[in-house]
Amino acid sequence: MAGIRSKAIAAALAAIVLAVLTTLVHGSWRGEPLAARADEKTKRVASAQPVLAPVSGEAAGATPTEAGIRAALDPLTKATALGAPPAIAVVDALTGKALYGANQDRAATPASTTKITTAVAALTAPGPDHRIATRVVPGATPGTIVLVGGGDPTLTALDGQQYGSAYRPARLSDLAAATANALKATGTTQVKLQYDTTLYTGPALHAIGVNENIAPVVSLMVDEGRVDPTVVGKESNRVPSPGIDAAKKFAALLKTAGITVDGTPAQGTAPTGGAPELASVQSPPMSAMVEQMLTFSDNDLAEALLRQVAIAGGQPASFQGGTVAARKVLEGLGVNYGASALKDGSGLDKEDRLTPQTLVQTLAVAASQPHPELRWALTGLPIAGFTGTLTERYGPNSGSADAAGVVRAKTGSLTGVSTLSGLVRDRDGRLLAFAILADKFTGDPDPARAAIDRMAAALADCGCTTA
User: Which of 281, 303, 272 has its CA nearest to residue 196?
Assistant: First the structure.
């Protein structure tokens, strides 16, 4: 037992260090001094079970009973803020065994918990090491070059520092410099520029229309099409045509590198038949992009990664092709899709439907020993009270503060919808996967979120081996 406690404390302290570093990057929490926030959370987390400790052997803890979990959760599902009892599923992450269900087969609106399925699909095909290339090739007409979009929404016109330590995106300036060097090597200092966005098919505009949460989904963009490229992980005005925006910025960088671009960049298509590449840059690996997508609920990344799944699966790189390909991947992993039916990869579409059972099975597969390639779908989940979209939840007056640092889960929010799905270690050290989908309330979403957080906290506090 001493060994288990040592592991728990070590992992909890690691979480505290991460929390302090995150706070220093993102600033204070609800106006509290940084040191006060870190100290208050240290007191609550130091003795908690680590959410991502090993899931095998003695450290796994005793398996809770269905009756025990029901006694802990059922009273909380009746909260009036939820409008109606939510759809819930809880499984043992070690074995995948179902431990609790309440409307677990009902296909509910999942909101951004959809991104869990996108993450697991992307880490499976094309895989965690996959990178997205943005290329420049000679055009069909002499004196023309083509900027070819490969679907990397993180390609940046800045220096890449806006992502902090998460990763370094590909830089448009590096692509321009390499292109200029290649052109100068052939004696070329003046070109016409085209840009190719033909990789994606179908509608570019998401079903929700023009929205600050997502840019038009095209295969060539810089800084996720944000008008202010320094904004990361927040709502932001978007340019109406990300492809031409990227091409114009590339043209300006070529000029800085000593290459003159005649006229305005025009839409075009790269020659077929393997045209020689002048230059290229590559995105961060899929594993890093998945973590970023989950932690900050990045909709642009979600839709881009869904299209990479479509391409890997031989489907059209569209909303529909991506969801078809993702479903095939998940079912190939043994996930029961049941009544689930998705329209996108981000969860912004209110017509999306997922069952809690689909979500918890997806998480259990990601936590299983045969699939280490899926671990980033877990490490990217926000930590309650510390990171990403859970930073402002599980606070000292929330009624769920004891679960700060213990729950690790993806949030979801739309009008009348609040969802949470992820992992938690119960009091006995057992790792549980859960999904809570509330999509039938009206009014202020904060009380609904608080009610859901209390359910996750109840699982963390559950020594539910008896009723």
Answer: 272
Q: What is the pLDDT of residues 438-465, one digit of tens each?
A: 999 999 999 999 999 999 999 999 988 8
| Residue 283's pLDDT band (cuts 50, 70, 90) | very high
Q: Is 30's pLDDT higher than 60?
A: no
Task: Say which of 173, 241, 283, 297 is annotated catalytic.
Answer: 297
Cα gap 404→426, rounded to integer Å: 13
Q: How far is CA 321 from CA 109, 116, 151, in A?
A: 20, 18, 15
Residue 112 annotated to the active site: yes
Sign of CA dihedral 295, 299, 301, 307: positive
CA angle, 145 as apex, 143 and 150 as ends, to 5°? 170
What's phi and psi for 17, nearest 5 deg?
Answer: -60, -45
Residue 398: active-site member? no
Instruction: Spell out the residues 6+ positions from residue 4 whose beta carbon is closer than 8 angstroms to its own.
Output: 58, 59, 429
* Residue 424 β-bridge partners: 407, 432
pTM: 0.88
The rounded distance, in Å, linking the Cα atoms of 91 and 64 is 10
Q: Please, what's the b/e burial string for 172-205 (b: 16 or more CB within 10 A of its CB; e: otherwise)?
A: bbebbbbbbebbeeeebeebbbbbbbebbbeebe
Instruction: Indicate the helix (H) or strand (E) that contains 91.
Output: strand 87-92
Helices (H), 345-397: 356-367, 376-379
The two counts, helices (H) then strands (E), for the chain are 12, 11
Catalytic-labelled residue, pool 41, 115, 343, 410: 115
For the segment 368-384, the average pLDDT, to the nearest whole number, is 96
Q: What is the pLDDT of residue 234?
A: 87
> If 0-12 CB within 10 Å is exposed, 13-18 middle and 19+ buried, where does residue 270 land?
buried
Phi-psi region for residue 300, left (φ > 0), alpha (ψ -120 to 50) or beta?
Answer: alpha
Q: What is the pLDDT of residue 467?
A: 60
- Residue 297 annotated among the catalytic residues of the structure: yes
Closest of 443, 62, 133, 415 to residue 281, by C-alpha: 133
Residue 301 to residue 270: CA distance in whole angstroms: 24
| Active-site position among 41, 112, 287, 410 | 112
- The two structure tokens encoding residue 213: 């949460």
* Torsion, Cα of 138, 144, 145, 150 (10° steps): -90
Nearest Cα neighbor of 433 from 357, 371, 373 is: 357
The two beta strands, 407-414 and 417-425, are: antiparallel
Q: β-strand 260-261 against 190-196: which pairing, if any?
A: parallel
